[in-house]
Design goal:
Elements (H helix, E strand, L loop, with lengths): L5 H5 L10 E3 L2 E3 L8 H6 E4 L3 H4 L6 H13 L3 H14 L16 H13 L5 E5 L7 H18 L2 E5 L3 H7 L2 E6 L2 E7 H6 L4 H9 L3 H8 L16
Parallel strand pairs: 3-4, 4-5
Antiparallel strand pairs: 1-2, 6-7
């Protein structure tokens, strides 16, 4: 669960030292600028720090609408409708579309970043430590959103994190990385319950109580548990 540059490499934003990135069995160009529009659309990334990832000069409306127009070819009216739908999907009031990143909380900015990634209608969304800067209650809301996305629109999510509580709550399959190399892989429940590699065992011994973390993820604020219209139209 150590984080090298793999998330950025998957998105074509960082050089690949060796190997290939395959999507449905097809090798992708290593650099995003060399990928087709369709290839870029299908893989989106949400960064750790939304304050840096969102352009401070662009409103929420502009930030979310841009990938819908550029990668999906939506006209202005359709893109505006998509912004409203996606803000509702990530449990933000549509009135926030007029605001700028500096006017939002950290949790709101991260949900805008998720909405922006979803605006491309991707097949794979890379989440790069997206809960690390959020407090527990906001983390729970974000994880609940990701669960809804997986269930409602069949989105594949690659979640990079150091937090084993998040792994236990969010992951079906897990890869444990040590110095950029895979040292263990398998079903998350099995790896966390019966780790085989000494590095995984050391991580688990150093982690706070997983049961307490899982209880926190499974008990987000009741006001924020309303279902969201996440299915793509």
């Amino acid at each position: 669960m150590e984080k090298p540059q793999s998330p950025r490499a998957l998105a074509g934003l960082h050089p690949i030292a060796a190997g290939q990135v395959l999507l449905d069995g097809t090798a992708l160009p290593n650099q995003a600028r060399k990928r087709s529009i369709e290839q870029r659309r299908r893989i989106q990334i949400v960064f750790q720090n939304p304050a840096e990832a969102l352009n401070p000069r662009h409103s929420v409306q502009s930030a979310v609408a841009r990938p819908a127009r550029m990668l999906r070819g939506l006209d202005s009216r359709a893109a505006d409708a998509e912004v409203r739908r996606l803000l509702d999907a990530v449990r933000l009031p549509t009135a926030l579309a007029r605001r700028y990143p500096r006017e939002l909380s950290g949790g709101e900015r991260q949900r805008v970043a998720i909405a922006r990634a979803l605006a491309a209608s991707p097949d794979v969304m890379i989440c790069d430590e997206i809960t690390s800067a959020l407090d527990v209650s906001v983390q729970a809301v974000v994880l609940e959103l990701l669960r809804d996305l997986r269930a409602d629109i069949g989105l594949s999510i690659i979640f990079i994190t150091h937090d084993l509580g998040v792994v236990a709550a969010a992951a079906d399959q897990v890869l444990v990385l040590n110095k950029g190399l895979i040292c263990e892989r398998g079903a998350a429940a099995h790896v966390l319950a019966a780790p085989q590699h000494e590095y995984t065992r050391a991580l688990l011994q150093a982690a706070p109580s997983l049961s307490a973390s899982i209880a926190a993820w499974d008990s987000p604020p009741s006001a924020q548990q309303n279902p969201s219209p996440l299915r793509q139209g």
